[in-house]
Specification:
This protein is an alpha/beta fold. Helices cover about 50% and strands about 15% of the residues. The protein starts with a strand and ends with a helix.
């Protein structure tokens, strides 16, 4: 779970990280203001199956695209990318075009995120 870009609001990321951990998943919180290349390297080093991005700025699509590119550059096309924060419906469509199906906006139940993550990781 990470705060990508310059956004410093991390409460939501920490709540989701705790919810995933409480559901039995191993979670690493990478902290604030991470760059896509840094995150892709952490995913590689930790052999992670999922990267969760918490984005509350208007830069959801460019930051997500940069993350997908950084993962691909390391041969990590099979890593599930989840995006949470301010994700309006039109942005969700753009994220799907990038290959990101897991986009969650405000008010999404943690159980829904856990269920989605489990289903996708099993595949």
């Amino acid at each position: 779970m990470s705060k990508i870009g310059l956004d410093g609001h991390d409460r939501g990321a920490k709540v989701i990280a705790r919810g995933l951990r409480d559901a039995g998943m191993e979670v690493i919180y990478t902290g604030l203001r991470r760059r896509p290349d840094e995150l892709a390297e952490i995913v590689l080093q930790e052999d992670a199956q999922v990267i969760g991005l918490s984005i509350l700025s208007g830069a959801v699509v460019p930051l997500s695209a940069a993350m997908v590119d950084a993962l691909r550059a390391r041969g990590l096309e099979d890593v599930l990318v989840l995006v949470g924060g301010i994700v309006p419906p039109a942005v969700r469509d753009q994220l799907r075009e990038l290959g990101i199906e897991g986009a969650f906006g405000p008010g999404t139940a943690i159980e829904e995120i856990v269920r989605f993550t489990r289903e996708r990781v099993r595949r």
